[in-house]
Amino acid sequence: MSELKGACIFGQSGGPTSVINASAAGVIQEALKQGSITAVYGAAHGIKGMLDEKFYDMSKEDPYELELLKTTPSSALGSVRYKLKKAEEDETDYKRLLEVFKKYNIRYMFYNGGNDSMDTCDKVSKYMQKAGYECRIMGVPKTIDNDLWGTDHCPGYGSAAKYIATSTMEVYHDARVYDKGMMGRNAGWLTAASALAAERGCGPDLIYLPELPFDLDRFLEKASGIYKKNNNVIVAVSEGIKDKDGKYISEYGSDLAQSKDAFGHAQLGGLASTLANIIKHKTGAKVRGIEFSLLQRCAAHIASLTDVSEAYMAGQAAVRFAVEGRTDCMVAFERAAGTEYKCNIRLINLTEVANTEKKIPREWINKEGDGLTEEFIKYAAPLIRGESRPPIENGLPRFARLKKVLATK
Amino acid sequence: MSELKGACIFGQSGGPTSVINASAAGVIQEALKQGSITAVYGAAHGIKGMLDEKFYDMSKEDPYELELLKTTPSSALGSVRYKLKKAEEDETDYKRLLEVFKKYNIRYMFYNGGNDSMDTCDKVSKYMQKAGYECRIMGVPKTIDNDLWGTDHCPGYGSAAKYIATSTMEVYHDARVYDKGMMGRNAGWLTAASALAAERGCGPDLIYLPELPFDLDRFLEKASGIYKKNNNVIVAVSEGIKDKDGKYISEYGSDLAQSKDAFGHAQLGGLASTLANIIKHKTGAKVRGIEFSLLQRCAAHIASLTDVSEAYMAGQAAVRFAVEGRTDCMVAFERAAGTEYKCNIRLINLTEVANTEKKIPREWINKEGDGLTEEFIKYAAPLIRGESRPPIENGLPRFARLKKVLATK
User: Fold this and answer.
1) How far is B326 from chain A (nearest CA, A)?
2) Does the pLDDT of residue B264 top 60, yes or no?
3) pLDDT at residue A358 above 80?
4) Among A46, A126, A396, B122, which residue has the fewest nearby CB atoms (within 10 Å)?
5) Average pLDDT, chain A
6) Which phi and psi angles does A388 have, rounded to 5°?
7) Which residues of A are part of the catalytic machinery?
8) What's the rounded Cα separation, in Å, for the pair B330 and B328?
9) A19: Cβ–Cβ under 8 A, 6 or more apart, which residues?
10) CA B261 distance to own-chain centroid
């Protein structure tokens, strides 16, 4: 493949994670090294910054601060939730992107996000091809939800899982806790991570995932039984659990209007308190609902070193493959065969990954539907290994401080 | 003072903290070394275990597990909220305690807790004196609320403050957060700790403490102003804030029945969501309420080493002073004069400390009443220094596992 000389642009999209900036470090540090890449731009708020011609010249940053990105949570460049219309329906955004790309001779685009972001990459890539503008576009996966199709796991999941498992172990020790809740949309990967705490003898008694319909009566019966026996019961539930008719349990006791986000997903929330109120009402027990909320997606102070390293590697690989001539792909992970955990990189087509959701296999959930099997533990345990921690100054983390010098033509 | 030979009993009471077990380690390890102490008992669930004659023989524990108590959160022996009646009104419990103490020749009692626990110590101590039973009783302070009178600060506060400051810095990086809430009863020490994050440039824009009346209109005006300017506003609020008429703000939008705990304190909760709903309703902004809930009191994975060491030292000092002949006191901290932080031990009478609450001085809060001054930062900064972390096994903490062998007469 012939060498393609030009600038690259990098953007972050969707909900933050503890390691999305580690991928940013991977892309930026690698791109700054590549001879074919003439400038490295960081888009402010993802695709929005590209459309608004608002991006930073990453060569102006202090190398130490770029290194600190590996342990700085959330999106250093700012994130966005912006859905591109289909080019067949409205070309405005695409024309604008082409104009900006031409103006700055942007020939590489790296985009870090989940399902929706891969869809964005895919659409831009197809349009640029059709317009005859040579440009290599690579997706770098991230989502704490771990629901991206085509990859063994997602950067961001390991650290969230480590936070959840650790906090669950700590909550377990907090004697007077009777119930708790956790976030997660339609795939239960995050809630399932609490099973890692259970494996250490400090986990929830019951775990409910959105992969299976939730039976409130059966749950109340089981929870009451355990409570009577142990005087204590800890339950982990996914925000997105539904009953057999497809109704969200969080809607049971709540009359809050359900709003929808820009991608048409219902905005879920408040299951822990809804469920806690139902249990209080039915059993009279003292119940405490705990929402891990966004703490689980930004807890860089307890990130998984495996996750951070892989997130970095994903960013780096995206740049290397693009420079070598690959485009239109997402970097994905593949677990090497053998007993020792090893994570290899593979590429998958953007079209395949966009808008497909990966759920927990049924056989990784126990028969009763209220716990995880050994297969899940084997899968998740290596992902939370290793301690990644930001440097500490006087007891608090020192996160990266970027200068954010705007790029000029 | 003459030597007093006999067994000692140790109990934990009230809400758990990250370092209550570090004090337990201090008491137990020191007591096991003392020649005058013939047996070391750990009461199951505090005063309840003493009354029920349910306590463990701590000499039967593996020394390594006792060492791990320093980094294990919550109450290893189990906690309790049990209020002793005044002896003048009902002697039953006191008579029973005397009976148990005599049966096991218990001559030392160490009790780890907050205001209410010091009140318990005080009552028991007075009764034993009146009954002519020689027994040395020492209180070891703990509470994340930091509201104990007579001590510079409380074991438990530094670690909770560190967790809050760190999590606040992380949440700050999580771009799409507009509002958050934190726990705390009537003294705002915990919420104030978010000012430590502000000092690092990653903190809340506004901080509201229960030390001052809360003006909802003024708050909405200020928050809207900051939101308009920065497109983002982070607010830290204490659970216990009230308006000028003394009404809890958490009651504003809530029709939940207010229940009371065993000590007659109103059970607060849900302020973050109440306030978030009010802001959503008034401004239309996307608001996210985050409750740190009990995560802040059990986050041993990010405990302050200063706090852990001082908690241990408090337990150890209680035993040493008692063996030397002191009784009827609580171990308290005193900051040494000078620029370098140094924490000295002093003893204060139980009667003085019980049921008095220490609030944040007015001059440590800014004029507007929505932020902290440099004095608070100077006070709190040394308390969160140093990293205490449990040993990690395959990515997760290894907490202490006690055998809990029941004591036999």
Assistant:
1) 32
2) no
3) yes
4) A126
5) 87
6) -110, 125
7) 145
8) 7
9) A142, A155, A156, A158, A159, A303, A307, A308, A311
10) 17
**What one-character-per-residue DSSP string does B132-172 give?**
T---EEEEEE--TT--BTTSSS-TTHHHHHHHHHHHHHHHH
Structure tokens at A161: 């899982």
Cα→Cα distances B238→A336, B15, B206, B219, B245, Å: 50, 18, 11, 14, 17
Question: What gap in Å lies between CA B150 and CA B25, rounded to an integer?
Answer: 23
Tell whether B377 lies on the interface with A, counting CB pairs under 8 A.
no
Mean pLDDT, residues B202-208 taken together? 89
pLDDT value at position B177? 47
The per-residue pLDDT for A381 is 94
Would the CB atoms of A74 and B290 count as touching at under 8 Å? no
CB-based contacts of A313, cutoff 8 Å, min separation 6:
A26, A343, A345
Q: How confident is the model at residue A296 (pLDDT cuts 50, 70, 90)?
A: confident
State the ipTM, two decimals. Answer: 0.82
The terminus-to-terminus CA distance of chain B in angstroms comes to 28
Chain-chain contact of A166 with B394 (C-beta, under 8 angstroms): no
Task: Please give the Cα distance from A145 to A159 (Å, whole number).
Answer: 11
- The arithmetic mean of pLDDT across residues B317-327, rounded, is 93
Q: Show residues of chain B in contact with A386, CB under 8 Å.
A: 395
A294–B290 C-beta distance less than 8 A: yes
Strands (E), B58-103: none
Residue tagged active-site, from B145, B147, B205, B370? B145
Query: How many whole angstroms separate alpha carbon B129 and alpha carbon B327?
Result: 11
* In the predicted structure, residue A63 carries a pLDDT above the cut 50: yes
Residue with tokens 């009140």: B119
What is the pTM for the complete model shown? 0.85
Beta-sheet pairing, B6-12 with B106-113: parallel
Is any Cβ of chain B less than 8 angstroms from the Cβ of A134?
no
Best CA proximity match to A319, nearest among A2, A58, A30: A30
Chain B contact for A253, CB < 8 A?
no
A:272-301 residues touching chain B, CB 8 A cutoff: 273, 288, 290-295, 297-301
DSSP code per residue over B297-366 = HH-GGGEEHHHHHHHHHHHHHHHHHHHTT--SEEEEEEEPSSSS--EEEEEEEHHHHTT-B----GGGB-
> Which chain A residues in 296-325 lie under 8 Å from chain B, judged by CB atoms?
297-302, 304, 306
